[in-house]
């Protein structure tokens, strides 16, 4: 059996992180998981073209899924920090960089690392 390439390891790890956030937000339905898979396919090509971008793929897949959900269902993940005002989604930062986090720009805070929504201390529920 061939070892898994670093590219595939990065893609599998990114998939797992985004799926964990979807599960935490209780939105990991089959059609939503399909959005993750579509993004992984697209990002596989992207990272094959730019192997140094492998460490950025988790944040990019999170953004892809967030954009696809906005188009089909609405904002995700909703900010758990701001208790008043209009519900708003968290953003991924950095937009293109390692160690992506969900942040609330309205409150100016880091909410959780991508993959850690709803994880208790350091993570917040997205529901």
Question: Which structural category do the helix and sheet elements fall into?
Answer: mainly alpha
The N- and C-terminal alpha carbons lie at a distance of: 41 Å
The geometry reads as globular
* Main sheet properties: 3 strands, antiparallel
Percent range for β-strand residues: 5-15%
Show unreliable segments: 121-127
Counting DSSP H or I runs of 4 or more residues, the number of helices is: 3
Average per-residue pLDDT, rounded, comes to 90
Into which percent range does the helicity of residues fall? 40-55%
Overall strand count: 3
Roughly how many Å is the radius of gyration? 14 Å
Structure description:
The chain has 127 residues and is mainly alpha-helical. 43% of the residues lie in helices and 9% in strands. It is built from three helices and three strands; from the N terminus they run αααβββ. It has helices spanning 6-24, 30-49, 57-72; strands spanning 91-93, 101-104, 109-113. The protein has a three-stranded antiparallel sheet, with helices on one face. Strand 2 (101-104) and strand 3 (109-113) form a beta hairpin. Helix 1 (6-24) packs across helix 3. It is globular, with a radius of gyration of 14 Å. It starts with 5 loop residues before the first helix and ends in a 14-residue tail after the last strand. 30% of the residues are buried. Residues 121-127 have low confidence and may be disordered.
Strand and helix layout:
Blueprint: H1 6-24, H2 30-49, H3 57-72, E1 91-93, E2 101-104, E3 109-113
Antiparallel strand pairs: 1-2, 2-3
Helix pairs in contact: 1-2, 1-3, 2-3
């Amino acid at each position: 059996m061939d070892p898994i390439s670093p590219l595939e390891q990065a893609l599998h790890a990114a998939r797992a992180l985004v799926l964990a956030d979807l599960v935490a937000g209780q939105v990991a339905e089959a059609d939503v998981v399909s959005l993750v898979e579509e993004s992984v396919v697209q990002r596989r090509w992207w990272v094959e073209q730019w192997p140094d971008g492998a460490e950025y793929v988790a944040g990019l897949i999170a953004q892809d899924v967030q954009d696809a959900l906005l188009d089909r269902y609405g904002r995700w993940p909703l900010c758990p920090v701001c208790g008043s005002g209009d519900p708003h989604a968290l953003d991924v930062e950095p937009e293109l960089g390692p160690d992506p986090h969900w942040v609330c720009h309205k409150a100016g805070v880091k909410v959780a690392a991508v993959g850690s929504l709803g994880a208790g201390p350091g993570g917040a529920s997205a529901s």
